[in-house]
Every structure is written in structure tokens, then in C-alpha cells.
Amino acid sequence: MLDFSEFLIESSEDNAHALHASTYNTLEFLKFEQKAIFEKQWQLVGHVSQLKNTGDQFVVKVGKYPLVIVRNEDNGIRALHNVCRHRAGPVATGKGNSKVLRCKYHGWTYQLDGQLRSAPEMQSTPNFEVCQHKLPEAFVEIWQGFIFASIDKPDVDIEHLLANIVETIKPINLENFSFSHRDEYIIDCNWKVYMDNYLEGYHLPHVHPGLNKLLDYRSYDTKLFEWYSYQYSPLENESNNQADIYYGEGSAHYYCIFPNLMLNILPGRLQTNIILPEGHQKTKILFDYYYADLESESTKKLIKKDTEFSDEVQQEDIDICEKVQVGLNSGSYQAGRLCSKREMGVLHFQNLVRRTISKHLK
Ligand code: FES
Ligand SMILES: [Fe+2]
Asked: Is the CB of 108 under 6 A from ligand 1?
């Protein structure tokens, strides 16, 4: 077994080094991350606007665990393991509404709170009682309408994780947003390659010439907090008409929340990015779009524009991330120096990875 302990020592600002290549290209390291990060830190799984009525449900995966997120009779939201107690079939698929959860394999039927209610033809089976079987539950918290879940009890509570965001983004109120649609991307790189890339503007002039014209590279700054990093930019920029036309008035707030969530908050709209490992060198990116007023004509136009623009930037990032993974796999690279002016967000994230995995290994 590979020994990662040397690579998990936190890097200080005055000698900042990136994570070692082996943390990006080995299945062993991803297994630690699944346990310590993806099953023990809050994961954004959806929004209350997707579960309006009792019985509304959708399936997700958190770490290795398939879950069904469902609105219960008591109006609460639960995250049940979507793994039947009989022989591990799914009790839900896709999204929809039902009064009970019926397994797709042999029809065992569960209440919305996970309690088994009936099991066809099991009456004469010795030592079997329906009341003794229940779907396990994940932890769930709702924050500003967003549904977070975790398989194990997380180290930090949700209010602490996201402290001060609500106050900082005023007058924008996240509770006004509703889910519009999702775009998905599959990228051939480790999930952290994509995270690192999001966390610095250093690559902007080289990778995104179009976006670079809209933003003021020199004033691009990142503030670090305990569990997230934050970039802010005022949008009224008289010298730069293009930015006004695209973004409108107000402020843009960009949060990168440990471990794998980005909130891109603009006036009237919000995009979340969720970064999920599909393998040690394969990553799924979910782009979810939310708007304050889904029905208005101006929102419909905005949706089209947002999607097109975000697609262009995304392709540029995908391309560079995949090339970086080739470099990480080459054997030529171990762990490079980070730029103290531009890459402290990367260092902050990578130190959280180091700390979380170290804690898990102890
Ligand atoms: S696996 Fe669910 S009923 Fe058999
Ligand atoms: Fe980028």
C-alpha cells in the first residue's frame, strides 16, 4: 500500500507546495477521500423547490451511497438509503412522486420514512417480521432552501460551514431562488484538478481570453475563511461596457465551499457547481441554474445567455484540466510551488484536504 503520510503535512504560506501527484492519480487516495470527504462532509444534493409535495422524490449518490431524497407526510425532508433491505435493489429511480417507496426488484414496499410496510409472499417465511426492517437514513440539513446530506455525521454543522454568506450577499436573498435546469459534464481528470483550477484566477489571461476581457484581472482577489474561499466583484464598471451588458448591475459573489461546492451568485440568479469523482481520473460536474423569477421573459432570455456563455468558459477549463491530468500521470511531476499572490485559495483548499484525510487516517 502507498504511504501518503508525507504528502499530508500541511503546507505553509511561505513555502507553499501543491499536493503530490499521487493524490491525483491513485485509486487508493480516492478511497480515503470517499470516506473522509464525500461521506463525511456536507454535500449539496438538491433544492426544496424540487420537492414541493408529500411524496416528491429524486435519487442522488453521496460518496458510494445511492440515496432517495423525499418529502415526508410531516413535511420534513429525508435522505433514505436507496438500497432495499431484501437484496439491495433500488426503492426509487429518477424523480417523481409516490405515496410509498416500492422496490423495483421484488416489490418490498416502504413508507416515506423508510419503515418497511409490506413484503409480498413473505408471510410464511420463518423469523421474518416487516416491522424489523427499515431503510437507513443519511443526515440532512436545509440551508436557504438548499438540501445538504451526509452519510456520516459531519465534523461541522451547516450554519458554521456557511457562516456569514447570507449577510455578505445582501440584498440578494437566496431563499427567493428556484431550480431551473442542470447541465452535466464528464471530464477526464481527478476532481481536485477541477477544484484547484476554479480556485485561482492565475490562468485567466492564458486559458480564457474572452472572459478575461469582461473581468478586471488585476483586481481579482480571493478572501479565505475557515471552510470556504470567497471572490467578490462589483459589476458596475464604467470603463468596461461589455461586463455591464452581460452581468447587469449589482455584485457578483463566488464561493468555493469545502469540499466540492461552488456558489456563483449574481443579481437575480445563481449557479451551483458540484464536483463529483466518478473515478480517480474521471469527474462529473453538475451545473445547476437557479433564478429568482423563473416565469418572466427577461429570465428566459438570461437563461439562454447564461448557458451559452458558461459553456464556452467551461470548455476552456475542461481542456486545460485534462491536459494537467496527463502531466500528473506522466511521472515527471511531484509537487510544484504555488504563487503567493494568486494561488492562496488553492493552498487553502489543499490544506483542508490534507487535514481531513490525516484526521481520517488517525
Ligand atoms: S431487492 Fe428489494 S424487494 Fe428484493
Ligand atoms: Fe477557468
From this structure: yes
Q: Set out the domains of the chain in order of their start, with CATH numbers.
A: 5-40+165-361 (3.90.380.10), 43-150 (2.102.10.10)
Which ligand is nearest the CA of 118, by number? 1
- Indicate whether residue 106 lines ligand 1 (CB < 6 A): yes
Would you say residue 238 has pLDDT above 70?
A: no
| pLDDT > 70: percent of the chain | 93
- Which of 83, 91, 104, 108 should be mutated for ligand 1, with most atoms under 8 A from CB? 108
Hey, whose CA ends up nearest to atom 3 of ligand 1? 106
Q: How far apart are CA 119 and CA 49, in angstroms?
A: 32
Mean pLDDT of 95-117: 98
All three cell numbers of 362, joined, read 488517525
Concatenated DSSP letters of 244-270: HHHH-SSEEEEEEETTTEEEEEETTEE
Q: Which atom of ligand 1 is nearest to the CA of 108?
A: 3
Indicate which atom in ligand 1 lies nearest the CA of residue 87: 1
Distances in whole angstroms, Cα of residue 195 to Cα of each of 11, 63, 64, 198, 325 = 17, 17, 20, 5, 13
The grid cell for 252 is 457578483
CA-nearest residue for atom 4, ligand 1, is 106
| Across 216-237, average pLDDT | 78
SS3 content of the chain, % helix, strand, coil (to 5): 35, 30, 40
Question: What distance in angstroms lies between residue 281's CA and the mean position of ligand 2's atoms?
Answer: 19
Q: How far apart are CA 340 and CA 184, in angstroms?
A: 33
CB 143 within 8 A of CB 42: no
- Tracing cell 412522486 back to the chain, one arrives at 97
Residue with cell 443519511: 138
CA of 70 to the centre of ligand 2 (A): 35
Give the per-residue pLDDT at 234: 66
Q: How far apart are the first and last CA of the chain?
A: 16
pLDDT in tens, 153-205: 998 999 999 999 999 998 889 999 999 999 999 999 999 999 999 999 899 89
